[in-house]
Structure formats: structure tokens, C-alpha cells
Amino acid sequence: MWDCLYSMSILHVDRAGAALADGYYSVYRAAHEIDDPGPLSSSRFFRIWALIGWEDNAEAYVHVRDGVVTGGYTLELPERDNAHLALIPKLVVAPESRRQGIGSALLAHAVERARAAGRRTLVAEAAAVGGPGATFAQAHGYTAATTEVRQVLDLRTADRAAFEGARDLAARQADGYELEAWRGTAPERLHADLALLHAGMNDAPTGGLDIEDEVWDAARTGERELRLHEAGANGRAIIARHTATGAPAALTRVFFDDDGADGWGRQSDTVVLRPHRGHRLGMLLKTTNALTLLDEEPAVHRVITWNAASNTHMRAINDLLGFRPLDTWHEWQKAI
Fold it and tell me: Where is the N-acetyltransferase domain (predicted)?
């Protein structure tokens, strides 16, 4: 279908456009290999978050030259909240095609799309050092609004006895709470509870980001769970409940691909709601989940987590569990 195209184009990609989607994923894989020591998204996962988004609010475009995809980007346009924002979760250029203006052309296209959607702020993420992202962002007038530290726990060398000791100590301080665990996507009966817990993530440090609180309900949670299932995301999760009231108090969750081929687990939300803090629920949930991974998920070898550099409490928990620093990222922001 590309024979009739002129030599250079920026084209929209949708789920039906298999050739363009395959090209975008191939560029992402090639760029990831040299830019990012963290986990690679599977093709199935990539086609959900990069082409349509977790809430059907993303659009993807690729740069095509002489029939070959040489770069691409994804633009998210939040609708339920933060309707002033546009987000670029991914912008990549094939390694052999860099320093030819392709990244700049893609970014300019993204800015046009964001402005057309009525957005005033554009946010993207890139490694702070060690890759082309930081230099590129600064050259285009973006400033670092937040700093996040990525840490990795190697389960193959983890100290099981230390996990058990930390779990037992935390459990003694969490009297009055009970745990509920599940594998895979969350059952519908938990969607309302998860909505409350997701909303609790609004307390997480956001630095200088021009961002509003997210608004969650059971319906939104259910839609997210469906998208995760479509993306092939499996996982282990635990909720802590206040025994006397049954109210959800805390959550931790680690995702991994259905096939487990890459060996990575991806730490998602860990949150303790404000009325339930001070009972070491975060430590209890994370150590319990880590032990579950050790016992029941042998294909998961490493767990990666992201935390704001200013979130010293959660990072201290990670340090005690044996997480080690991998790299540092910024969220880059610019008024458009």
C-alpha cells in the first residue's frame, strides 16, 4: 500500500493498519535495545497502550520514508480529567535514522495535534541521562518537571528469609487488617474498591507537573481492567482491608506478560490510603507479594519499579527489600 506514497510522510496508525503498526513496533524495539535497560513491551501490550491507549484516548503516528517506518510517537489526550494536558508516552526514531530531523518533525506534529485538541500543556518522559531523550527535550524548550528513579529487584538472588522477617514484623503492626489477593485482572466485585485506591494515588508527589487529581469510579476501573486483559497483562495483586469496616485500605500490584517470556515484573500502584497510614501496610503488602512471586511465578525473575525521587518513604521500603537503582527519568513539560 505504500508504493504510491511520496518519499516522506507522517501517517496515522490504527489497529487495522497492520503494516504501519508493525513498523512502529520494530522501531520501538530497535530504539529500546540501545536506549533503555528496562523491560521491553510485548507486541500485544504495545498495540494497546501505544495505538489506542488505556482509555481509548491515544493516537499514534509514524514517520515513513520511501516506504519504511523510521520513527513514531503516541499522543494521549485525557478526557475524564486533565483535559488541558497532552501526553507523549513514547517518541522513538530508528537508530540508523537519527540526527536527520525525524524526531523534531514528529514532535512538531504532536504539538499541532495537541493544540488542535485544545490542550495547553505537553508532557513527555525520557531518561535523565544515558540516552538521547534529555538532550532532545531541552533542545526543544522542555523543562524537567519531575524526577523518577527506577529500581530493580532481582528475585533470583533475593533474600527470602529477609522478606519473611520483614513481612512478619509488618504484620504484627498491622493488626486489625486482613489481606485479599488475586491473580490476573481484578474481578468486578473489586472495581469499586480499586477506584478508591486508585484515587489515593493522587497523593503521590508530582513535582512541578501541571496536573490535576484523577477521578476514579467503578466503571473507569472496569474499563482499565478490560484493556489490561486485552494487552495480555497478567499479575499479582493484594488489597489490605480494615477488618472492622471492610473498607479498602491499601493496594500493591505487579504486572507481567501472560507468556512470561521476558522475565520482568512491572510494579504498578502501591498505595496506602491516608486514614490507614502508620500500620506498615505498604511493607506488609510488598513483602507478601514478593514472596508470592517467588513461590508461584517462577517465570518472573526481576521486578522494576518507578518512584518519584522525592518519595523517600516508598524508596526506603524498596531499599529494604533489596531493590537496586537502575536509572533516573524526568517528565518533561512545556506550555504549548
Answer: 11-170
